[in-house]
Amino acid sequence: MSGDFWFDALLGVLLLVLALATIQARQLAAAVMLYVVFGLMLALAWARLGAADLALAEAAIGAGLTGALLFSALARQPKSITPPVRAGKMAPLAALMLCISMGTVLGWTLWQLPLQPAHSQLPAALEQLGSSGTEHLVTAVLLNFRAWDTLLELLVLLLALLGTRLVAAPEPAALQHWPLARQWSIRLLPLLVLVAFFVLWRGATAPGGAFQAGALLAAALVVLRLNGQLPMLSFGAWWVRALILAGVLAFLLAGLLSLWLNWQPEQAVQWLSWPLPLAKGLILLIELCATLAIGLTLTLLVVGERKELTA
Amino acid sequence: MSLVHWYLLIAAALWGIGCYGLIRGPELLRRIIALNLMGAAVFLVMVTLAARTEPADGVLHALVLTGLVVAVSATAFALALVARTLSEQA
Amino acid sequence: MNFALAAALLPLLAAVLALCWRRQAAWLVWLSTLFSLLLALAALWQVVTAGPTTMQLGGWQTGLAIRWQLNELSALLLLMTALIHSLVASYSLSQWRAAGLSADFWPLSALLQAALSSLFLSVDLFNWYVTLELLGLAAVALVLLSGKKALQAAMRYLLLSLAASLCYLLGVALLYGHYGWLDVPQLAVAISEHPVDHRLALWLITAGLMLKAALWPLHIWLPAAHAAAPAPVSALLSALVVKGPLFMLYMIWSQLAGPELVVTGSWLFLLTGSMALLAGGWSALRTPYAKVMVAYSTVAQLGYGLLALGLMLQLSDPVFTQALFLFVLAHALAKTSTFLAVGEMQLRLGGKRLSTFRGASQTMPLAMFAVAVAGGSLIGLPPSGGFVAKWHLLLPLWQHSQLWWLLPVILAGTLLSAAYIFRLVVLAFNRAKPVSPDFAPALLPQWLALLPALLVWMLAFASGALLSWLGG
């Protein structure tokens, strides 16, 4: 058996063990830490399956930022009384049988899937890649072929922020700032910003792109905020809102511009169809604005601002 | 057993584990983690299906990236609700 | 397609502008709903005169790009979305400060409209997933506008909604694994050419969509969410938010299910539809809270939709498609009116229970009239829109005697809805509770609550045109 086989076997089993441990861990803090490790192992699995962009994104967003969000939620829980827990209404044995049978049925169905896909969009995508304005397939799909999905996705992110602001979870207890952490964050900041913009730039030709870059920016800002080195970012400030809306605005403006440039009388308009000479520039502009928007939105999601919830 | 089949089975098992966590809980935070596990299972299915071709199907990768961001947004919202719910109960 | 595109983009633009200029948010969003209504009417006119069109977003070939399809059905649904939004926005504009509705309502409702418009136009499975998530998050955020009391209901709605989305996405992944298409018409072609057993995919998708559409038995989140939400939000939830997944269910089952699967699916929908009618109606009758009663009424009315869908799948008769979407339209208008009127009465008379409405025919006659008129359509009294829809459901049943058992079910459902509507109306004619001498509720919101109810009764005049558009 080759080394590859053992690596995958071990990685798969490790994923399952970590998932089980996350569900069963008695302390929530332990569960969250195990979930972060799970996320990193998942990133490894995706790298193994040839998805480099996703490995980057999962490590930054799925494991890193989600972990930060979970810890932030844990920190906001009042430690005074153990909150009353409502155990699931279904008996454990019944739930276990249900989930095992679901998993088995799913596994059996997945096993039946053909190893050689009957049809896939890949050949068509590769064929059109040259006229998309970018050399990296994932970026081309996200910002050209299926740009509308990306625009909606930026709206989902915005909506999550709007919803979170409505709820206004209480501010976590004031931290004792750790001097070493403060020194570290000052040194890490330029490095993180540099890496973020590098990842953004590279997204045109190799794995990378706006989402991963935005997550890195958010990481930098969150660390600064947690160390008390960044003032509170208020949604009421016009520049904060402008940056958060930058991604969506860039998309809309680029769409309207191309609509106008592609305009032909007596023909239906083309929405989100970048004219070939402008495609590269438009994609880069949109990615830049999206990076800033994603970075700031994710930061505000993790280290929210205080707002009173009206009863 | 090929690479693709192995990871598909892992994904199925992850889905089952996630469902179990969602049903049993008991804490809300654990339910949200379980939802993220279910999401990870779905994304693993999609990435494994992308790995069937050589080179890997970038279209599916892009879809998973979209799904990841959507999942993080939803998780953030849900966690804000949980934090508020718990602070109201206490 | 130009008008439809503009109708979908305008609310999006309005939401972004409303977030930038927050003091003018209410006017901006209200104007955008009115303009999008005009654009949707223009889109319908365009479809009727020039025929259906499709658009590949980005101009790329089918399969690579997301496809938008504008036919009579999607144009009507686009129009319905714009109409309900403009009605609710007008009502909210007339009383939002008095009702204490937060200013965050405006950008959120505009985003909701954008999500719905995009959903009704799209025929791409993964794009539907993203619009579904947008729709769900917007709906939860809107429910939260009530404040602390909505936390539990919103939390439950959000968690269930997320689980449902993941079930849907897993089903889509399975379908892509079998066939390699996300574009629904192309997927239908691929399925007809090389059918493979994709049952689990379709069941997963159905489970996810049934939960999002609050179809029995996955409707548990709906009554609590409606009770907690502000009145305009409840109207939007019942009238529009649950209709999006219902539309997707129809599109997917009518195009992507093989012959044997269609039979199983049809029985599922017939049985759950019957249970929804009976259980929903029964729960509506027994609850003491007004908004919970109206919410259970939604669950029951959606049962008619399920029956229409099941019958369409089993008998392959296009008349049931007509019945399904006539129900969707009539219910949207009637429920909007009911929730807006009940909300206004709850606000002025001060109370959540049905007993608050005692004597409302003397204290707030206009709003009570709106409830009665809308209730008439919900029961299915002729010649309201609800009656036309039910008629088209019942008429073909006479020819199919093997489904005779549906007739008593529908009769029982109608009787139950009559019972809970009359319960409220009769209570209104009791002697009124004494009110303060300066009790003078604003009339404009009540008129605006009456408007959708009048429209649904006028639907019968347009039924000829509607039937030809939906039947084609």
Q: At CATH's second level, what is the architecture of chain B?
A: Orthogonal Bundle
Q: By helix and strand content of chain B, what is the structural category?
A: mainly alpha
Specify the overall morphology of chain B.
Answer: elongated
Quaternary status: heterotrimer
Q: What is the β-strand count of chain A?
A: 0
Helix content estimate of chain A: 55-70%
What is the N-to-C order of secondary-structure elements of chain A (H for helix, E for strand)?
HHHHHHHHHHHH
| Shape descriptor of chain A | globular
Low-confidence stretches of chain B: none
Strand coverage percent of chain A: under 5%
Percent range of helical residues of chain B: over 70%
Give the N-to-C terminal Cα separation of chain A.
64 Å
Description:
The complex is a heterotrimer of chains A (311), B (90) and C (472). Chain A contains twelve helices and no strands. Chain A has helices at 3-24, 28-48, 52-76, 92-111, 122-128, 137-145, 147-167, 179-202, 210-226, 238-244, 246-261, 279-302. Chain A is globular and about 65 Å long. Chain B has one domain (3-89): Helix Hairpins (Orthogonal Bundle). In chain C, strand 1 and strand 2 form a beta hairpin. Chain C contains 20 helices and two strands. In chain C, strands 1-2 form a two-stranded antiparallel sheet. Chain C is 76% helix and 2% strand. In chain C, helix 3 runs antiparallel to helix 4 (105-121). Classes of the chains: A mainly alpha (311), B mainly alpha (90), C mainly alpha (472). At the A-B interface, helix 1, helix 2, helix 3, helix 4 and helix 6 of A face helix 1, helix 2 and helix 3 of B.
Overview in brief:
Chain A has 311 residues and is an all-alpha fold. Chain A has twelve helices and no strands.
